[in-house]
Amino acid sequence: MVIEYIGAIIRSEVANRKERLYESQNRGVYMFRIDNDYVIDATIAGGPARYINHSCAPNCMTEVVSVEKENKIIISSCRRIQRGEELSYDYKFDLEDDQHKIPCHCGAFNCRKWMN
Ligand SMILES: [Zn+2]
């Protein structure tokens, strides 16, 4: 285990509203989808895990674990990580149509060119 992705657990509908609010305030939005119904919002009350970038060849993986009936996102290494190496995981965004594609600049040999 490397770090827990902490923040406020909110329902998807609330997350959609908050995302629009944060964007209207020009805030960086930091959210992690737990499942279809819930999202962790780390925008206001998050930890350093929210700054971990996406990579198509990541050195970490994420998993949802249930601790005393509460879901938590745990970021774990999936291979040996060198000192000073940037941490990354695969954001696994849902696929979007051409107009909503986010380009990927991770630089991995197997980069998929798009994050969604
Ligand atoms: Zn990439």
Task: Provide an overview of this structure.
The protein is mainly β and 116 residues long. The chain has a single domain (3-100), classed as Beta-clip-like, CATH 2.170.270.10. The chain contains one helix and eight strands. It has one helix spanning 12-24, and strands at 3-5, 8-11, 31-33, 38-41, 53-54, 60-67, 70-77, 88-89. Strands 1-7-6 form a three-stranded antiparallel sheet, with no helix packed on it. The chain has a three-stranded antiparallel sheet with strand order 2-4-3. The chain has a two-stranded parallel sheet with strand order 5-8. Strand 6 (60-67) and strand 7 form a beta hairpin. The longest helix has 13 residues, at 12-24. Residues 56, 104, 106, 108, 111-112 line the site of zinc ion.
Give the topology, please:
Elements: E1 3-5, E2 8-11, H1 12-24, E3 31-33, E4 38-41, E5 53-54, E6 60-67, E7 70-77, E8 88-89
The structure holds zinc ion.
Zinc ion binds next to loops.
Domain Post-SET: 100-116
Pfam families: SET
Protein name: SET domain-containing protein
User: What is the oligomer described by this structure?
Assistant: single chain
Biggest sheet statistics: 3 strands, antiparallel
Task: Name every ligand kind in the structure.
Answer: zinc ion
Q: Give the DSSP E fraction (strand runs of 2 or more residues).
A: 25-35%
CATH superfamily: SET domain
Give Rg in angstroms. Answer: 15 Å
Kindly identify the CATH topology. Beta-clip-like
Number of separate domains:
1
Structural class: mainly beta
> How many strands in all?
8
Question: Uncertain spans, ≥5 residues at pLDDT below 50?
Answer: none
Strand order of the largest sheet: 1-7-6
Total helix count?
A: 1
CATH architecture classification? Beta Complex
